[in-house]
Prior knowledge:
Elements: E1 10-15, H1 21-36, E2 42-48, H2 57-62, E3 66-70, H3 82-88, E4 105-109, H4 126-131, E5 136-144, E6 156-167, H5 171-183, H6 191-196
Protein name: Nucleotide-diphospho-sugar transferase domain-containing protein
Organism: Polarella glacialis
InterPro entries: GNT1/Glycosyltrans_8, Nucleotide-diphossugar_trans
Amino acid sequence: MGVPFDPPKNLFAFLICSSRISELIKAFAMQESLLGNGWFGEIAALLPEGDAARAFKRPLEDAGILVVPVPQIALPPSMQMGFTSSHWWLVMTKFVIFNLKGYSQICILDTDMIFDGLRFGVRPQTIFAECGEAEFCAVLDHQPLWGQESYRSESTIMMINGGIMVVRPSKRRFQHLMQALKEETRVFILPEQMFIS
């Protein structure tokens, strides 16, 4: 008789912090793209407690999506202004994935992400294998400097793309991030991307 083996439990997750129906539609499209490309594991919607997105709980559950209420993580005071505040008020809530228990790896996706790897022979679970044992795994992205019209090389900066990140949950790392957010005084127009970069 062999030794019991529990395979790694991985999770795809996304954050909804808006009651706009377009967010729900994008979430369903993302779910369909994952399932249609061979993902059979859990997909979770992170809904900040007290946010209007809680109105989507029932339709998400009816679609087979695990709904996970999470505490809100607001932007640091230095970033609570204008467009950044109105558009990304709760974007830092993504970092709760570091504090979710019961998973080996969690991939958080923005709701505008669609998986289309199967035509290249790549399944969604590949992302977890490619990240290996890394505690944090993401891709670098060229972003235009604020106010720039194009992606010319001289007018872009490199930063982590916060729209797709893979983490290994770690209470220590979560506490470190929360402390860093509490002490953050810089102004970031792309908050979670510039903060984590």
